[in-house]
């Protein structure tokens, strides 16, 4: 017997095909939603600390404050963690979903996030490429005027006034679509690479922004699709022993792996990447960092953010995967066949 065999109220694991009580799964549901609540509070505090110059929670624990605002703000930021955790408690307390229903709900939230990110890299890539092309050929002042053309040559202008509105638009578009678009993004990567080849060898024309566009889209394809690949059991698994395990044993492996290897890895990425103003994710975004090529795309800072999107989307999906795995351990109906990727 393991700790996962019994639940909060002490009821035993249900046999496969039986009807598991939503009440008995509350502890595991609560664990999953608390992880997401803490992650959300961390991201919000990261924005408040490094973009709005609030002091952060470090002064409460003897660390250095960011900026010069009163320490009262530190306590308010710390209270955000408590508020989100209480929201998780309230949701689980008032909602009688099963583990699998919560897993599906969390997966749907993640799918929306990834859809929005897909449209963001698509639209930002196309618009930024158009701006770079017009700048290179000298057409931009004729199109938008000299003053705006000069501003568009500065990453500190193009980032907040061009990229950010397009990203906001992408989240709106994602709310009305149901496709993740990875197939199309892969096709666009190939098309962009083909443009480079044709331009170089047929027209003797090559510009830095085309290579930047390929890297921008390919990085998004690789990092954004990881959570979807996890959902579809598409990652390479060394299953010398796993393939022959029972559904319950597979659930134990998946649950432990989700926590020990998955959620912990995503936590490390977020803490190391966003733990300070000069950290690897925060620093490029705060400065709207660009490549050294003068007429390349101004999206290098967004590519640093891709790592954050990867960690967040994988964290969300690992929580959903954990809940589904616990449901397998408990023998709840409707489980996924991990060999054929179908629902039982």
TrEMBL record:
Instruction: Report any Pfam family annotated for this entry.
Output: DctQ
Q: Has the keyword Transmembrane been applied to this entry?
A: yes
Domain of life (superkingdom) = Bacteria
Task: Spell out where the chain crosses the membrane.
Answer: 27-51, 71-92, 112-134, 160-177, 184-203, 215-231, 252-275, 295-323
Q: Which InterPro entries match?
A: DctQ
Q: Name one GO molecular function term.
A: transmembrane transporter activity
**Which keywords, in A-to-Z order, does the entry hold?**
Cell inner membrane, Cell membrane, Membrane, Transmembrane, Transmembrane helix, Transport
> Where, subcellularly, is it found?
Cell inner membrane; Cell membrane
The residues covered by the Tripartite ATP-independent periplasmic transporters DctQ component domain are: 194-325
User: One Gene Ontology cellular component annotation?
Assistant: plasma membrane
Q: Where is this region: Disordered?
A: 1-21
What interactions and quaternary structure are annotated? The complex comprises the extracytoplasmic solute receptor protein and the two transmembrane proteins.
Family, similarity comment: Belongs to the TRAP transporter small permease family.
Q: Which function does this protein serve? A: Part of the tripartite ATP-independent periplasmic (TRAP) transport system.
Mind telling me what this protein is named?
A: TRAP transporter small permease protein
Species: Roseibium aggregatum
Lineage of source species: Bacteria, Pseudomonadati, Pseudomonadota, Alphaproteobacteria, Hyphomicrobiales
